[in-house]
């Protein structure tokens, strides 16, 4: 029992408190009406075990004052309780209660002193943390009695403190009223700093993110199951009170739900059977970035993974690969059975835990020889997160971070310490010579923990090693808005805290692969599939293009048997045309000798090409096989002696590039500009020398043009050009 020194002294001035209590009652009624208008349930208190656990948490994270200002001592021993539960829900309630007490620590201590509970009451020091925790809940219930369930186990210390607070109920209410008047605030909430109030407001409306365990269920099956339970798919869940969900734009396996549906979602089988897992979106962005950098058999090293759900998500994404995931920093081997049990329930098979800390892990460790990507999730201030309790519990972060959240910021000294730790971890990750990429991700909004750390590590990296140095790479995630594009101009991926998501910073460091290492086709396809470029294509089946190539290869030997016949016919045709040109005009024998010579040269050059590149001739009979006989195309030739440069241009396509019978044009562009029909009868693969489609001809007098019409030509005439 508690002993009171002089309770009568504290009863003086009771008359002045009545007016204050009346104003408190009015404000209390107003707050109660506001609570009922928004649909929030009335507070009925917590189980005894939650009070005890919250008191122990608060004792460890409280703000310590200088000795001359200390009026309330909290002792050094935690409260003992045999009924403390490891239930996740009760643990979350305990952390939320302790964090709320931390935010109002100064006000609650003032109320205890102003109401004469301290120092006039003799209370053991180790119970003071329990008193201040229960006082916060007492005033939050508007000083109403707690409702207890019949099957709830009671704790003696909790009952004693509850009796004490009830006996000082009037004085505590008066002390709260005076505190509100002093700060000119309607409630305790309005006394908090603005940054903390905005943070709490975002936390109450922030959508829920959950990723799909594709080892157990497909996304389509999840959509159908949710629709059967009354959920409708929408593009955005903001400001919607109905049962809806949306698919995230950055991660194809992440769903978004309105915040008010959490209790309803936790009771459906999809979450109970680990088919859907709640987690902050920043962690899904990190694992998807790693997935986009992986080959089929690359291993992954995860550092400071925090939540085991992050490790499980990484395992699910690499389930179809031969990759192995190494998780370092598992402090106790006693956790291994629990982790393996959790991973087994979720269908994860490729996870191996390492008990060494990352800094003590050797880069030449034989277990890590195939590690190509390192995912670094360093301990950070986390000021980009709206719900600090969720962040602490899910990421297994130090509860000391709750102090920073309660004040809305981090001190410069602490920020410097965190940045130094992050820099050391990042530089150590860059020492793994076989690793080809490092993904660095934080939930912080401070540049000192983000850009400054990455730039410093890149600037001071060791260039003396034989491996390629790291460089900053653009984000491998899709940029879905103009804001994201603007925030990623310097190759960093950023998401500012908003009403739809927490803050996130992500950086990808890569280096060129060792030239001695070859990348297989499977690796290229796997990386393309990870980026969503092969959507709907099965990698195991050959494509239609490959089948066509196989058929064409099988038909090539038949083409080679007919190529000699075609070449013989071409040679006979050339000789017949040459003799006809000689007999047609005896007066122009001296002039026609030059084209005849050129024709012979073309025939010889075509034979040389046949021996050098037989593949070009193999395609000829494939197109000529069923073609009807075509008329010959006559190419006009001028016999007026041109200038030296004109003669060189006119002879160039005949002597070097194109056989006159096979192809009158050297490019498909020239052909398409002259002939509208798309049909072709022969394909000729010319030499690498590119010739113009139209040959410039010298200006010819009209007298020469008349003579030109009557002159023979060495070129055949065709209705359609051969390709």
From TrEMBL:
GO terms for molecular function: methyltransferase activity; RNA binding. Residues 198-512 form the SAM-dependent MTase RsmB/NOP-type domain. Residues 581-623, 693-723 are annotated as: Disordered. Residues 581-608 have a biased composition (Polar residues). The active site is at 443 (nucleophile). It comes from Catagonus wagneri (Chacoan peccary). This is NOP2/Sun RNA methyltransferase family member 7. Keywords: Methyltransferase, RNA-binding, S-adenosyl-L-methionine, Transferase. It holds the Pfam family Methyltr_RsmB-F. It comes from the Eukaryota. One of its GO terms (biological process) is methylation. SUPFAM superfamilies: S-adenosyl-L-methionine-dependent methyltransferases (SSF53335). Belongs to the class I-like SAM-binding methyltransferase superfamily. RsmB/NOP family.
